[in-house]
Write the structure tokens for this entry.
Amino acid sequence: MSNYRKKFAPTKDGFQEVWDSMQDPTIEQVMAGIQAKKPTKEQLLEKIAYFRNSRSTLDTELYHLSEYAEDYNSVYAAKNTYQFGITEGLQNRTKIQCKRWSDMLEFTSPRYSQKAAPPGVEQTVYKASYLTHKPYEQDLWGPASYGTLVFDLKTEIDFIISHMEDGEHMCQDTIAQEEEIKNDPVRKKQLYEKQYREEEERNKETIDDYCRNGNLSADNALYQKMLEYDTRDGFVNDFFHGPSTSQFSRFVVVDSSLNSLKMNISPLERRLLGNDFNKVKKVRIAKAHIDSLLDIKPGGQFETHSIVQCLSWCDILSSTKKRHDNEHEFYEKYLKADYTGTHTWPAWNTVFAARKTIGRNDQQRKLDTASFESKYNEVCDEERME
């Protein structure tokens, strides 16, 4: 039984130890590794079959690793949290390839001897195997001793190394991307706000229920951590990839509900406009003066383009739904629902057709937003003068 260490630490240095052992061994090195333990041909054939039968499993693991690596840095709070961070998560998703590689190294290492290393020095398969750096003596008979089985084992070695190299590149890219985002406060804030809105949308019924009943406790660990910061930006900056997805989801429910209750923001306003009270207040003022802000057609109907300007200015939140679904709800349930004036509103299909055309033009959207902002400021100035 081998006493070589095969496990590696879930750190960048631990991964590097494994990656450094991945050489492109010659057929002579493979032969030296085989002869280290002098297996019979039947034993060697059995070992080759063991590695060959792992191929589909290695393919599947590599596929799942690629999915994990692609998704991990696209979110603020990842699915799982680990004591050692991303490297531990990657280690969990490369278990099979690392296990097969360490098995291969162990099989091609000399029999373990405590005398082979100085006292206190740990012996590992990553340095003991003839496939890595260990010097060897050229065999007199070479590969002929085991016939084509040597080349069969070399084929399996090459297959494992190929998967290990692909996995290495994915792991290194993921680690580097995370480091880059950690040093970019703007990017972290963008990821936070995006995931926050998605969680609000996903939990909107729960949040709405808390807002109606007011029976919500602030006893949430992540929420209490946030209260220790002077600004939310400081909290967002420090907790990137800290909480798990489920922890972040519970935090959003508590934070969004308490903010809405504290600032008297309705569930509909929170869902469509967010918890920024200044923004909600401006939209409320615009809604109250909508007759002065929208252009009127001769027949008394609000002009479609001015409604589009209003929608651009209000900056309705995007969500997991299509953006125009939120704008439709804002138009029907917020602007029109409480309107008590004498003018009429065009059908949403008419507004959406104009919105869809203008929405493709970023420059036009900016002009519309600026135009409505100018009208809004004029109304506010008149109100102050009165």
About this structure: Residues 149-182 form the longest helix (34 residues).
